[in-house]
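sanity check both lines:
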Amino acid sequence: MRSVAMWMVAAMGMSAGCKADEAPAPAASPAADAAPAAPAARPFADAVACVQGERLDQGCPGWVALRGRVKTDADALLLEARAALAAGGAPRLIAAHLLSDASLAPGDDGVRRALLEALDEPEGSAELKAALLRALGPRATSGVVRQALQMADIGKDPVRAAALTLVARAADKAPRDSALSVARAGFASAEPPLVRRAAAEVLGALADEAMLQPLVNTLDDEMVGSSAAMAISRLRSDAAWFALLKRVQAAADGNPLPPPVVVALARMQKHPAYDEKALKAALEAAMPALTEAAAKDRRAALTLTVARRIVGLPPEVPPAAPR
């Protein structure tokens, strides 16, 4: 449940929360620090036509052409993006999506300030706010993370999910108690899958052992189970390893085995309780049941493929279609 107190904190501190923690920017001449007044490069201007209403069509040729410049013209693109953030409207939305590319993340404090200024404005669609948060993720400071925590507790679902994802990716900068409180609330069963998936990322990033059982209870959920399994794989307790291994062992009796469970176990090779022999033995015992289920169910077929790879068997050849 979102508390009234949390809402009040968000309402009063949305802007100040992040800026209070920002280190003061080094002095610079106005000419050096000012972004151009408008995005001048043709590909950026062309991409404006890809915004329909308040949404970006990422298959639009203008956007595809602009994205193509990320690896070849990053420095110029950063300057254009800063100008677009200041311009507002469709250019701002395009810049926010563009700057979420990790290739454009390093080094430009001016871009981070421009993103924060755009985020602090009360106007803007949910897609824009979410895109701005994604762009801030690789540039997150502790102040940015605190602001994201406030936004994760209020507002529209895409914004809350993007805010939680930012917190997960900058978990080392998050105030642990506040982050856990917001993530646990976001993982509640009444929340939409979009928010629950992002909340699970935070629970995993912060290694929240207290949420092991709720995460286990979600493994069969097709919308959230993958994020839950990955979160469990990041917990360091023996109980986390055995909770996933138990699901594999139960598959030998014909119980459903979601593909993410097997993938998560395979990723736990550095876990203190990891036991390769036990995992392979459990998968081998489950192989007949998995093979039978794979003939009827797409998810079971994917589980079988992953399981065979871990055990060291070649991919199963599908039976020839009858003539």
Summary: The longest helix spans residues 276-294. The chain has a mean pLDDT of 85.
